[in-house]
Fold each of these.
Amino acid sequence: MELDRPLPTPITPECQPYWDGLKENKLMLPQCQDCGKPFFYPRILCPNCHSRNITWIQASGKGKLYSFEISHQKLNRRFNVPTPYILAMIELEEGPRMMSNLIEVDPDPQVVKCEMPVEVVFEKMTDDITIPLFKPAQ
Ligand SMILES: [Zn+2]
């Protein structure tokens, strides 16, 4: 199968639970054990209180569309997702925001609306990499 986009090569240990979770169709988020806030992207310090006391929680996979762009051109030759596609900033139910693509919806500004409820879809790209995409929630 030809891949439609470049894939990450996870190398930092603080990200490994995120990628391991995705392989099992789980969206995992780091959560600070001192201030209690989940955050994204994974890192060794809590971005809220700078604690190193980090644990992991499984996110519900539900959220809302915070912002989006309908892209009509490929700005990177290795990115072969058919245009137009939707670049989406998702605000997860747990609070953190993550960049993804919104799929299974017309890439039309009359249809795609900020605040629309969305849910995660796990897209297996290779044996090692599954990526989280989002679709309108049922
Ligand atoms: Zn904290």
Note: The CA atoms of residues 87 and 101 lie 5 Å apart.
Amino acid sequence: MAPPSPREFFGFDIGEDRKLVRWDRIVEYFRVLDRESPRIKVVVLGKSTEGNPFIMAIITSPENMERLEEYREISRRLAYPYDLDEEEARELARRGKAVVAISGSIHATEVSGTQTLTLLAYELATRNDESVKLILDNVIILLFPCLNPDGQIMVVDWYNKYLGTEYEGSPPPWLYHKYTGHDNNRDAFMLTQVESRHFARIVYREWIPQVYLDHHQMWMANARFFISPEMDPIYPDVDPLVWREIQFLGSYAASRLAQKGFKGVETYSPFTPDFVGAFQTMAIYMNIAGMLTESASVKIATPIYIHPHQLKGYGRGRTSERPTINYPDPWPGGWWRLKNIVEYQKESTYAILEAVARMKDEILFNMYVKARRNIERGKSTPPYAFVIPPKQHDPLTATKLVEILLNLGIEVYVAEEPIEAEGRFYPAGSFVVPLAQPRRALAKKLLERFLYPDNELTRDREGNPIKPYDLATERLPDFMGVRVEEINEPLRVRIRKLSSSPKSSPEVKTSDYGWMLDSRLNASHMVVTRLLARKIPVFRIPTPIKIGGEELPPGAFYVPAEEAVLEVLRGVAAEVGVEPKSLDRPLEVEELLKVEFPRIGIYQRYYGGNIDEGWTRWLMDTYGYPYKIVRDEPIKEGRLGEEVDLLILPSDPLSYMTGENIEEELAKRFKIPMKLPPWPPEYKSGFGQKGVENLKKFVENGGTLVVIGDAFEILTKGFKLPMKDITEDIKDPKKFFCPGSTLRALVDITHPLGWGMPKETPVLFIDKPVIELAPNYENEKYVEVVRFPDSNLLLSGWLIGEQYLARKPAVLDIRLGKGRIIAYAIRPQFRAQTHATFKLLFNALYRYEKQKI
Ligand SMILES: [Zn+2]
């Protein structure tokens, strides 16, 4: 029996104006396809963040389906070809089947991907023409119909709710993923979210496809359709064959679209593959031909009209609407509909699948070539390895870094004997990442000091630096505060391959006097929150203290011995990996501070939601800090103090917080007039000027305000504190430019906010603010807990004009009235990636009561 068509099953055609299939129905439909077609096998990989099924459909011929495990093994062996010579690789390529992963709609408002891929699955299950036969015989498709099921449901429900009203077609006013919103596609290396981990297991480690195609949508008034290749700068350590495959496949798809008369298709424009936070760019660093498509958006599923003059090029890659080599057939303007997007996406997908099917042997053999050459380069070119020594400021975070590398399919080893290299010594037990491995490019990208290229590819004609598509660096040792050493001579040492996380479950010894937790470990804070949640008293010691032979720096946690504590501590330690140090004598200290949680709030607004707010919540949920979400009312009404003691303002421009002048701000940022979507009045948030005044009063009356990144504007422009962000005056990017780079900063580790930090730490700084304090009679109330050093600031990324940042404050502790403001010019918790500076935020989330000894 043939499976029902989408029209029969859903009651309408996929791509019909104003019609979207919701995720639950899509999953049902895939189950039907699985049942009715021998060409489709649906695998539930697990649940999404909010408990919806996360599925993958394997699509291939029934004959191939019988031998999936064998083909998977071939795909893996070609990707890690240690035991293969060229002849064997060619033989495997002949025997194997090409593997292509396809996904869509990770960005939930980019609805078309999921709809298209559902239709595609039906056609592949039922069509019997030559093209489909060719594809099914030669290719195993790993189809991810949706990388963000929760968001798909949110968007479809929101869209249907307002269908037929004046708000039709607006995106939801909140984040379309519980925590990450649009940043769910910046989680490709840290893998914090469950959706990321499901995908990574299949694509990074179990199957390792040769090609990965990810469908997105872009702004309404650009080209109709973009398909890879993207444009310079590229990362030079990616094997050249990867770029050539991408060019070939993209051009093949573009020429197929041209053959069929699809207009407005562009390549080599404005996206860049120079970061690894996105899944498609990540694939490239794994020797996979990672392909991106971006279709011009409609109003969710409602057609949109575009005037010809609204169509424009970009600063990078294509400057006008004139026909150019990478955009030979401009679209003339007019109506644009969901159906159009479905057709562009579907046609390009077929073209890529056909190309891969025709070149199956070559594509499989290429994987061997790319992997082999990475191994060879690692043997012949420095650096030869990275070493992660066991002696670390926070060894558990170093272990976490190793775990991340393993999750990315990077091979990590443990030295079984001491290492001597370049006159330096590392003890046995050090972690070693040799670069003679297939994922050399990725390991290098993530571990090596990286200076973003500053050349004619990254400057415009006026010599202005062009903002990288994402951050200018993603170097894990900087992000995580882990010491990683580069080894520039061949390593000769006995090493053992790590097959799973080196995390251990420490033992907790009994004690009559209590336990100490080292404040240098991020994970200690996780233990503390769990103890506090169980009402177990925890204290901090503001001075250094000697325990056994070891001195703990200021801020160590003390857990007195009480009944039942040991049991809890054992459970928590096993879970978190922290080893509490048991005391063998009564604690002797001058001063003890009892640790409590203040009533914590996080400010949340609409206008599409604030991604930094989402990540902050993720971090707080993961580490166990209790909080409530605060919206405008208590702030506007001046009763915030009744609800919370401490309010976090995640990074956000002031206009988004007040709800005033947002379009003007956007126009300034994007340099074109901008209109917000039509949102119902109840979703127009903002606490207004009144709220700004009330927040200031909240602090003056004893409250604490935590201000991150862009939210600094509330202090400079809102509270009018005697400080300014000098980037507002500099304006010229040739003078100052820092688009997401890691910098050195100096920490006062005797200050409670700096407790547990090293004296010098890497920090992430993005664009602004560069804070200058006006000399004033209350200077002493502005305490610089972290500041930038006098020179040599840049660790990784891109920094023009370091003199502007030198010596400036990075974290301030400000007294205002009876209260306090803790302000971060850096990004202490960015995307939950900056482990190096988590503690600077955690330390802000306690309140202390002095105890008599
Ligand atoms: Zn997207």
Note: Residues 107, 110, 216 surround zinc ion (CB under 6 Å).
